Structure formats: C-alpha cells, structure tokens
Amino acid sequence: MSMTVGAAFDRYLGPGTGLRIEAYDGSTGGDPGGQVVQLRSPEALNYLLTAPGSIGLVRAYLSEQLVIEGMDEGNPYPELQTFHGGLSPRRPSLRELPDLARFVRETGLHVPELPPQESPAMWRRLAYGLRHGRARDAAAIAHHYDVSNPFYELVLGPTMAYTCAIFPDDDASLEEAQSYKFDLVCRKLGLSPGMRLLDVGCGWGGMVRHAVKHYGVTALGVTLSTNQATWGREVLEREGLSDRAEIRHSDYRDVTERGFDAISSIGLTEHIGVRHYPAYFRFLLERLRDGGRLLNHCITWPHNLKNGMPKDQFTNRYTFPDGELAGSGEIVRVMENTGFEVVHQENLREHYARTTAAWSTNLSAHWDACVAQAGIGTARVWGLYLAGSRMNFEKNVIQLHQVLGVRTSEAGESGVELRPDWEIEAAVRD
Q: For residue range 182-237, what is the model confidence (pLDDT) as tens digits?
C-alpha cells in the first residue's frame, strides 16, 4: 500500500485528536499518549470510508472490527467525548487528492455488511407502510421496546420507568427520582380519589400503578409494546390492582372511552410525528371532560427553528426509528390551537442528563447479565445510546419539557388553583 493507515490518519486527522491508531497493516498514528483505537482489518476502514462520521464508527465497533482499548462498553461516556471533539478530518488539498484516491482504491473499497442491530434506512422502511402509519409505528416500537423485559429491569431498575426522572435533591437515588416524577405528574394533573386517568404510551405501567396506589384513581394505560403490556399486567395482578387499573396492548388511537378527568402522556410524543401533532392533541382533548388536564412530557429541541428527525443517524437507525422532535414552543402552539389552555410548562433537561447517567451506571454494573439477555450487539448499542444521550442533554443539544394543558369549559372554568405550587404540595405530603 502506497500509504499506511497510520500515515493517512496523521495526514488527514492529525495528532491532536487524543486518539492513537493501531492498524491491521502494522502501522500506528495519532497521539502517542492518546486512547488506543485498533483497526483490526480492512473492513474497519471500509466502514469508516463508506459512512464518514459517527455511523461508520458505530458500524465498525458493532462488527468488532474496531476496538477501543480499556473502554467500559456499558458506559463509554469518556470515549464519546473524545470522539465528539476529535474526529474532524481536514479537507485534502488538490495536490493530495491523487494520493488519497490511491489509498482508498488500495483498501478494496466496498460497502461492508451492516450490523444486524441497524434498522433499515428510512426509505427502505416503506415495507412497513408510510411513516407514522399504524403498522410502521408498531414495528418501530417493537424495534426498541421489545428487547427483553429482564434486560430493562437491569438497566432501568425497580421502577421500570423509561422516561426522565426528576431529582428532588442532589442525593436522590434513581428510584426516588422516578417515584418523585410520577408523583409530580399526579399533582400537576390534580388527581384525587374517584377520578379516571388515561395514560397513553404507558410503558410498563409505572404511572398507572403510582396513580392508583397513591391517589385512589382508576386508570387505563395503553402501549404498543407486547412485552410492556404483558409485564405491566402481571404486576397489576400481583399487587392486587387489577380491579382499578388496566394495561391494554393497543394503539392509543383505538381508545374509545371518553370523559377522563386527566391524561398523562409521558414519552410518547417523540413517536407521533410532528405533522400528526394536531390530530394527536385533538384526540386527547376529545377524551377529556371539561376541566380535565393533560400532562405532556417529551424530549424537545432547545429552539423552534426546526422540527422533525434528528440529524444524528445513529438515533434513527439504531434506537428510535422514525422518532421526531419539536421545540416546546411548537408543542404549546399546537396544543393551544387544538383547544387546550396551557397553564404551565418547565424544562427538565438536566434531570434527563442525570437519568441517562444512572441508566449507564446500571448497564455497566450488570454488563454480563445484559449481554446474556439481549446479545452483545444490542448491549453495545445501548451503551452508546445512553452515554450519547447523556452528553446531548448536558450540552443542551436536546431538552425535556413538561407542558400542562386544560380543557377549559365554554364558561372559562379551568379548575386550576389560582396559585398552584406542586413543590410545596410535595413537601406537605412528604
């Protein structure tokens, strides 16, 4: 080969990346004291060359052609920070182009086989139907949530809550923060004994159980995930709550009941599709009685300049196929245009950074058991996903908003206290 892999790395990336490359051709490059990255075969280089950026690195790593020495695969947060700041290839000069072309040609450039954990490109998902149609939504949910209930138990902990926790203080555990989150939602919704709650996208039923046990409501939860519904029903039966709570394996659009006192939507809006927001919020408004409240809790952009899918292809191909985000202003705008009176909103971005950090710690601590449950490839995807999510929340790339809306009556009655203070109410309860 006219140019070694190590020499190519030095020429186009330079030694200041904090990385040291050890390549299959025996060459080295990069920072002599940096994190050691082994490229084990020409396939590693093919992954990097055919998909520049993070997706090529991910493919090479999941295919075991790229190895990062000393990395905690359950919590690769330090390595992601290094890669995030260091891999910015410079543009080759015209004089260098012939050498670069020769180097690429000598690698036997081709598109290698994709890791089995990767979801098809968006245009290829048409086999499942149009984006955010019922069949394709069900396929997307199954891709992420129907991994293994024991796997999620290891990663999420006893609460089995797969949404942003809210930490009442610096010393709160993940379990305390998840319980606090459910209780805060209950207080914002103004729940009291005898009320009826609808929880759309209910997951494993944490919100349903908390509201029934601590606020005396009856509750219906719906989820598109078979695994979640099965697990949630078993817990309701075991805890003697089945007479007051139901977890239904269903699309939320199939809920025919009306007149609910409150609706919680915790982590569902990301799966709806931004252009479907008007229909979504209209559907929920129609399920509420006058004075009924909706608490919408979802990941958002930190601005309102764009809507839709993340540019990061890792998220769309490996974790949340067809996932879409909007700014909190867009959510408020659509809710108000649909007929809700928005009475409160707050940003919980830093709480989600803490939550994902705690999940990463759990994954790392139970790594062998998680691999046994889900396979090494899926476990590695989760390691990258959780650490990357933590970094994105910390850097304010994404946020988490709770927005509280009311179906105010025609007479203008919202039923909301003049000065509600959820935190004081929590202190009194504690």
A: 999 999 999 999 999 999 999 999 999 999 999 999 999 999 999 999 999 999 99
Sign of CA dihedral 249, 254, 260, 266: positive
What single letter denotes the amino acid at residue 219?
A
Residue 192: Cβ within 10 Å count: 12
- Which stretch of DSSP H or E encloses residue 84? helix 77-86
Q: What is the DSSP letter of 107?
A: T
Query: In b/e form, how buried is each residue of 80-113, taking b as 16+ CB within 10 angstroms?
Result: bebbeebbeeeeeeeeeeeeeeebeeebeeeebe
- Taking CA atoms, 193 is separated from 177, 261, 429, in Å, by 24, 11, 15
Distance CA(166)–CA(358), nearest Å, equals 12
What's the pLDDT tens digit per position in 390-402?
999 999 999 999 9
Q: What are phi and psi of 23, to 5 degrees?
A: -100, 160
pLDDT of residue 123: 44
Cα 160–chain centre separation: 15
User: Mean pLDDT in the chain?
Assistant: 88
For 206, the enclosing helix (H) or strand (E) is helix 206-215
CA nearest neighbour of 248 among 198, 183, 296: 198
Residue 87: name the closest of 18, 31, 35 by CA: 18
Domain ranges of the chain: 5-106, 134-429
What pLDDT does residue 125 have? 44
Angle, nearest 10°, between helix axes 349-365 and 376-394?
Answer: 150
Confidence of residue 16 (pLDDT cuts 50, 70, 90): low
Q: Give the β-pairing of 19-23 and 35-39.
A: parallel
Task: Identify the CATH class of 134-429.
Answer: alpha beta
> What is the per-residue pLDDT across 312-347, written as a single tens digit (0 to 9) for each?
578 888 887 778 999 999 999 999 999 999 999 999
From residue 189, alpha-carbon distances to 18, 235, 416 in Å are: 49, 24, 9
